[in-house]
Structure formats: structure tokens, C-alpha cells
Amino acid sequence: MTREEKATVIQDLTTQLADNSIIYLADISGMDATATSDLRRACFKANIKLAVVKNTLLAKAMEASEKEFGELPEVLKGNTSLMFSEVGNGPAKLIKNFRKKTQKPLLKGAFVEEAIYIGDENLDALVSIKSKEEMIGEIIGLLQSPAKNVISGLKSGGGKLAGILKTLSEK
């Protein structure tokens, strides 16, 4: 690979790092062709981009990026694959589900909305991260719950002023 080609790859990686706020680093080495193909297919279905990269080029792209990757460059040893996703826990769920059949991929680290996770032992914590849509749904549900209780209480009060006042004072 020439210097120009390396510079182009580093620039492309830097752009991808800048454009994504959810980045996973995984080790897929040792997987046979069938397992690798299955992983790529699962990533495609889950709208996760998977790319195998050279560690030195990725380290330079991280260095050139405006994001603070903390200790992530330190895990760039051996085989490294990048996973980009729109959903914070998407790659973690995919890895955990895929590991029901095989021991790989291993999680090396993750950058999720500026939070950094290092090591495979953080996989369960990453799986439990809620997406923005899930959080909004929970908040709306929590906000609707008291209103529904008051409305049902008002309806059960018989519609008379004394019943409504009694219901409101109980709530």
C-alpha cells in the first residue's frame, strides 16, 4: 500500500469516526468463512456496518479525529473489526446473540455517545443501554400514568362536584 493509499484510508476512517457516535471494536479472528459470512449477514440485517481495518491506520484516524477516544487505541492489537451503528446497544446485542453459536466475536472496546467501554466484560452493560427511542417511550409512559389515574378517578367519582373534589384530594 502506497503512502497516498494509506493517507486516503486514514482520511476515510477519520470521516467515519466523525460521522458515527456509536463505534464498537471487535475481534473476529479465527472465525471460519461460514461464521464470518453469517456475522456479516446479521450485521446487514441489523443495520450495522462492519469493516476490518489495520490497527495502525485506525490509530492514526483516531488521533486525527476530534473525538476523545481515551484508552481505545490501546486495545488495537491483533485482528480488529469496526462496527458502526445508529443504536447504542445494537452491536452488543448482535455480538451476544452471535456468541450463542460460537466464541467469537469478542468485544475489544466501544465508544457509545462519548462513553468508553474497554474489554469483553462490558458486553452485558452495553446490551442494557437503552436507545433514545426506548427512553422517550419510557418517559412518555411515566408522564401518562398519573394523568390516566386522575382521569379514571374522576370518572369513578360519579361526575358530581363533591365526588370530583374527593377524588382529587385523594390523588
Q: Helices, strands, pairings?
A:
Blueprint: H1 3-19, E1 22-27, H2 33-45, E2 49-53, H3 55-64, E3 80-84, H4 90-98, E4 106-112, E5 115-118, H5 123-127, H6 132-156, H7 161-170
Antiparallel strand pairs: 1-3, 1-4, 2-3, 4-5
Helix pairs in contact: 1-3, 6-7
The overall average pLDDT, rounded, is: 83
> Rg from C-alpha positions?
24 Å
Could you describe the largest sheet, including whether it forms a barrel?
A: 5 strands, antiparallel
Global outline:
elongated
Query: Could you list the spans in which at least 5 consecutive residues all have pLDDT below 50?
Result: none
List the secondary-structure elements in sequence, H or E.
Answer: HEHEHEHEEHHH
Number of strands: 5
Structure characteristics:
171 residues; alpha+beta; five-stranded antiparallel sheet; 5 strands
In short:
The chain has 171 residues and is α+β, with helices and mostly antiparallel strands. It has seven helices and five strands; from the N terminus they run αβαβαβαββααα. A hairpin with a 2-residue loop joins β4 (106-112) and β5 (115-118).
Question: Could you characterize what this model shows?
Answer:
The chain has helices at 3-19, 33-45, 55-64, 90-98, 123-127, 132-156, 161-170, and strands at 22-27, 49-53, 80-84, 106-112, 115-118. With 171 residues, the chain is of the alpha+beta class. Strands 2-3-1-4-5 form a five-stranded antiparallel beta sheet. A hairpin with a 2-residue loop joins β4 and β5. α6 (132-156) packs across α7 (161-170). It is elongated and about 85 Å long. The N and C termini lie far apart (71 Å). The mean pLDDT is 83.
